[in-house]
Specification:
Low-confidence stretches: 293-312
Radius of gyration: 20 Å
Helix content: 40-55%
Order of helices and strands: EEEEEEEEEHHHHHHHHHHHHH
CATH architecture of the largest domain: Sandwich
Number of strands: 9
Largest sheet: 4 strands, antiparallel
Strand content: 5-15%
Mean pLDDT: 83
Distance between the termini: 27 Å
CATH topology of the largest domain: Jelly Rolls
CATH class of the largest domain: Mainly Beta
Structural class: alpha+beta
CATH superfamily of the largest domain: Regulatory protein AraC
Number of domains: 3
Length: 312
Amino acid sequence: MRSYARERADRPRFHIRESNHIQGFYPAHKHDYFQIIYFRTAAPTIRIGLTTDRPVPGSIYFIGPMVPHQVRFDRSTRCVVTYFDLDFLRPDLTTSYPAAELARIAPELYPFVWQNHVELGLDAAARARLERSLAAIQAAHDAPRLCSDAVIRAELSLLLAGICQDHERDFLELADSLPAPGRDGDHMRRIADYIGESYAGPTSLAQAAAATRLSRSRLCALIRAHTGKTFQALVAEMRIEDACERLALTDEPVGRIAHDVGYHDEKYFLRAFKKQTGLTPRAFRSKKAGQDGIGGNRAAPRPSDVAPPRRT
């Protein structure tokens, strides 16, 4: 599973850019930095860990280090992507821990910990505040001057602090009601890694349990607790969501898409697809083409369109 930023060099990484009118989807990947994606428009389904969501205008997502995720765009998508190393934001914290552990001493990281447990959509006032912060950060990044890093760090801290205060009650209740940070974190990272990498291939509950070093009953209990789904239902959902995006964003034949997302029997794929979406694959593709007004060969975006190296 790859990252879309260059390897860390001799200084902490930070980058911000607008990603507009890019069409394509990225395979599941993860990275060792923190990432924020703010959508100004609606966008195709995004997956963080084992949880999926459909961005609407004002959606914001916080992706912690080593959390597998998939990001997808169509040509109407407009978003801002920011990433940073921990020691860019907090030079006093140079040791790497899971985000859930770091949040005990750096509560501004709570959005990365509770991303999949709190609705982080922004109201009009919060969006205006966020847009001001992003504009200040981007101006300081694109035209660096003396103390530009300090300006970016301060604005980024205020952005995160504002989100935390907007959702203070939720975050504090979650801190009390959910298992202590770190108790199941390693297990869930292994589960998310395995399913994210393997759902499109031949997989089974027994294989997943062996790969994650858990009993089958423990694996099922963790997935149920964190997603509300069974292992089999989660894999099927991921396969059909992947097929939906391929149908919408490529011109590949239905049979090839069925095979690529893990179905070797096209008739079984057709039944599974219609059960989950209410449409046949061809009807789904026609509906999306009518909505988007887009045809022809659709290229995937370059990695640099999401998180290019920082300019120096």
